[in-house]
């Protein structure tokens, strides 16, 4: 086997004039990272932010003869990147998505319903006339990032680590307004390359309200009703925008229901969608000011309600279970009581949500 691959490497060297050196370097780095992360199980997240960890596209192999390409293709698939029947990177487990949203997402009946219907409808309609664009809104810690991960985990074999999934965090990936023109080109190229590489892609934009308006407008054509953009179809892409915008409106509606004695589960999209859309349009920040909003290209605004004490306990229970630890009601109460709640007089809604619970339970371990 070693001799066989040595011959392949020699063959590659013989055909080196067909490649750019940078492409070869990226290919080598990608496979080193793949083996390190998946065979040695190192602590890393391949294929996300480092361009050198991106899987090579077909163009990289264009100069090889058919014989060499066949051998490389077999090696590539032996590493788990593809299979004989379809694209095995994509699982589209709608049943698993429904179960995870129902059992692991607490206090968010609206998000459970809207996200499931939107994803299921999109997956079951291969002739969709535009990409699916969801905008997730609510306080920090209410489950927006969690839902994004659940979607990735059920639509892709490798979840958020899949080469078909890309996460952008606005202040981390695009921190400087003066470089927005540079970011535009990089973002367009990243999206285009992924769409060419994967038949179904997922793009997650966290802290979307901090994106420069010009940056979103630069990729607006990819979310519009176009057959293709420069010869590339983006209709099988999913865009998720995560934002804290609208949190105050959502909380006001939830508080009004509580004061009137109505059940939280009676809150419907008709109570929130119009107000949420209006607040998003009127807010400050690039996300709200972009053509994405004025062009009505967001398919669903998904509200995340503030979490109550009982929901925090459920999150704490899940955090203990994730570590293989048993717990009791008294301990769960202690964890929940350690959180901050608002309004102060009523201690109704958790000000921190569930995000900090995994770290907080360390204080309750023996």
From TrEMBL:
Keywords: Signal
Torsin-1A C-terminal domain ranges (all copies): 307-364
Superkingdom to which the source organism belongs: Eukaryota
Pfam families per the UniProt record, alphabetical: TOR1A_C, Torsin
GO molecular function: ATP binding; ATP hydrolysis activity
Any one GO cellular component localisation term in the record: nuclear envelope
SUPFAM superfamilies the record matches: P-loop containing nucleoside triphosphate hydrolases (SSF52540)
InterPro entries, sorted: ClpA/B, P-loop_NTPase, TOR1A_C, Torsin
Leader sequence segment: 1-16
Residues annotated as transmembrane: none
Protein family (similarity comment): Belongs to the ClpA/ClpB family. Torsin subfamily.
Entry protein name: Torsin-3A
Species, as recorded: Liparis tanakae (Tanaka's snailfish)
């Amino acid at each position: 086997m070693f001799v066989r691959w040595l011959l392949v490497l020699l063959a590659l060297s013989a055909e080196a004039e067909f490649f750019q050196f940078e492409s070869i370097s990226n290919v080598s780095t990608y496979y080193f990272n793949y083996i390190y992360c998946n065979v040695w199980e190192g602590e890393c997240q391949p294929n996300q932010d480092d361009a050198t960890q991106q899987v090579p596209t077909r163009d990289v192999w264009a100069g090889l003869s058919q014989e060499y390409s066949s051998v490389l293709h077999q090696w590539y698939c032996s590493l788990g990147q593809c299979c004989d029947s379809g694209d095995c990177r994509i699982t589209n487990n709608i049943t698993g998505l429904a179960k995870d949203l129902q059992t692991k997402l607490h206090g968010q009946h609206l998000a459970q319903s809207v996200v499931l219907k939107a994803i299921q409808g999109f997956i079951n309609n291969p002739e969709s006339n535009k990409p699916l664009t969801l905008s997730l809104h609510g306080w920090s810690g209410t489950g927006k990032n969690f839902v994004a991960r659940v979607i990735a985990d059920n639509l892709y074999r490798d979840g958020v680590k899949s080469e078909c999934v890309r996460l952008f965090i606005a202040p981390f990936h695009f921190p400087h307004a003066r470089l927005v023109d540079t970011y535009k080109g990089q973002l367009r190229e990243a999206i285009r390359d992924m769409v060419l590489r994967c038949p179904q892609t997922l793009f997650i934009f966290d802290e979307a309200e901090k994106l420069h308006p010009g940056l979103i407008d630069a990729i607006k054509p990819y979310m519009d009703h176009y057959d293709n953009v420069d010869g590339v179809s983006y209709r099988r892409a999913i865009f998720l925008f995560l934002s804290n915008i609208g949190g105050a409106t959502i909380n006001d509606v939830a508080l009004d229901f509580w004061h009137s004695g109505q059940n939280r589960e009676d809150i419907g999209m008709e109570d929130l969608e119009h107000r949420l859309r209006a607040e998003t349009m009127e807010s400050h920040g690039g996300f709200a000011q972009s053509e994405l909003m004025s062009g009505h290209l967001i398919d669903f605004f998904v509200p995340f309600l503030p979490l109550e004490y009982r929901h925090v306990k459920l999150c704490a229970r899940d955090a203990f279970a994730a570590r293989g630890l048993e717990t009791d009601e008294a301990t769960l109460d202690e964890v929940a009581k350690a959180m901050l709640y608002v309004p102060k007089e009523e201690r109704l809604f958790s000000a921190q949500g569930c995000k900090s619970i995994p770290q907080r339970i360390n204080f309750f371990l023996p």
